[in-house]
Amino acid sequence: MTVRLALAVGEGGLTLPETGPLAVFHPRASADLSVLPRDRALLIQPFRPDYDALAAAGWAVDSQLPQDMRCAAALVFLPRAKRQAQALIARAAACCDGLVVVDGAKTDGADSLWREVRKRVPVLGSLSKAHGRLFWFQADEGAFADWVEPAAQGVEGFVTAPGVFSADGVDPASRLLVESLPPHLGAHLADLGAGWGYLSTHLLRDDRLKTLEVVEADRIALNCAERNITDPRARFHWADATGFKPDQPLDAVVMNPPFHTDRNADPGLGQAFILAAARMLAPRGQLWLVANRHLPYETTLAQVFAEHQEVAGDSRFKILHAVRPVRLRA
């Protein structure tokens, strides 16, 4: 994260209130928050790895803004999804009695949002630095009423939300995986990185299934999954899948693992999901995953499973199946 906030406060003309709570929406763990008072700032972060890192650093953190909270100022760190960014700005303007500060990378639409906000309210200051922009304005709830997040949005009968993975349609890779799975995978399963619950919903169609661990790091996506899935066999976990530990060894893990947390691809994320799955599985357990064809997961599978193969796919995606995890020495 850049130092735009520190520069704006230090020499850019931005003055934060000396009293009253501050709401800080979606800061990453790498954000430079050094100018904020720890005793008055509440960080709103629904992504579990960042939530845990910020809490460990001593910040007060919540996954969502407490109902009816009023704040003296609000800061919004822009997410990638424009609709989610607009909703966060609207939420900040609604809860705030003072300034709303918006910071983001230009690749995440910071300049575009700055231009849109200027059409609605006077922008009191702006700083362009380090491939991004920070700007601030006096809160005006009515100016952003049309940006308020809808109570729910739907995809093929499922509830989704702005900013979650595959919010506007079923992910084609997940659909391909569903089409490739056998009807029965075992009694105890997990869906790692479950999102809003598309794969889990399919797995729960098996009457022989006893428990399904629905694991998702994005609290917003997991909220959707909890609305989409009412089957009591599903157990929901707001957790980083790479560190999740089930109560018992699993018969199978199914997943469409992420391969980026920003705009830069990181195959290491998917590889970490594979390692985590191997640790969760029973000795004869199996892993089913879908991945973009270019991602180099086969090497990792060979390290932690006795057998693996590509069982289906197309020009964009591959379905990989691995069995019998190998217990590596620590």
Q: How would you describe this protein?
A:
This protein has 330 residues and is α/β, with parallel strands linked by helices. It has 2 domains: 4-147, Rossmann fold (3-Layer(aba) Sandwich), CATH 3.40.50; 153-325, Rossmann fold, CATH 3.40.50. Helix content is 26%, strand content 30%. It contains 9 helices and 16 strands. The chain has helices at 4-11, 48-56, 82-95, 110-118, 172-180, 198-203, 219-228, 267-280, 298-304; strands at residues 22-25, 41-44, 60-62, 71-77, 96-105, 123-129, 132-138, 153-155, 158-160, 188-192, 211-216, 234-238, 250-255, 281-292, 305-313, 317-325. A 7-stranded mixed β-sheet has the order 3-2-1-4-5-7-6, with helices on both faces. Strands 12-11-10-13-14-16-15 form a 7-stranded mixed β-sheet. A two-stranded antiparallel ribbon has the order 8-9. The protein is elongated. The two termini are 33 Å apart. The model has no long low-confidence stretch (mean pLDDT 94). InterPro entries: DNA_methylase_N6_adenine_CS, RsmC/RlmG, SAM-dependent_MTases_sf, Small_mtfrase_dom. One of its GO terms (molecular function) is nucleic acid binding. This is MFS transporter. It comes from Pseudodonghicola xiamenensis. Residues 158-320 form the Methyltransferase small domain.
Can you list the strand order of the major beta sheet?
3-2-1-4-5-7-6
CATH fold-level topology of the largest domain: Rossmann fold
How large is the count of helical segments? Answer: 9
The chain-level mean pLDDT equals: 94
Total separate domains: 2
CATH secondary-structure class of the largest domain: Alpha Beta
Biggest sheet statistics: 7 strands, mixed
Q: End-to-end distance, in Å?
A: 33 Å
| Overall body shape | elongated
Flag low-confidence runs: none
Structural class: alpha/beta
Question: What is the total tally of β strands?
Answer: 16
Known CATH architecture of the largest domain: 3-Layer(aba) Sandwich
Helix content: 25-40%
CATH superfamily of the largest domain: Vaccinia Virus protein VP39
Provide the β-strand percentage band: 25-35%
Oligomer: single chain
- Radius of gyration (CA) equals 22 Å
List the helices and strands in order: HEEHEEHEHEEEEHEHEHEEHEHEE
Keywords: Cytoplasm, Methyltransferase, rRNA processing, S-adenosyl-L-methionine, Transferase
GO biological process, one term: methylation
Protein name: MFS transporter
GO molecular function: N-methyltransferase activity; nucleic acid binding; S-adenosylmethionine-dependent methyltransferase activity
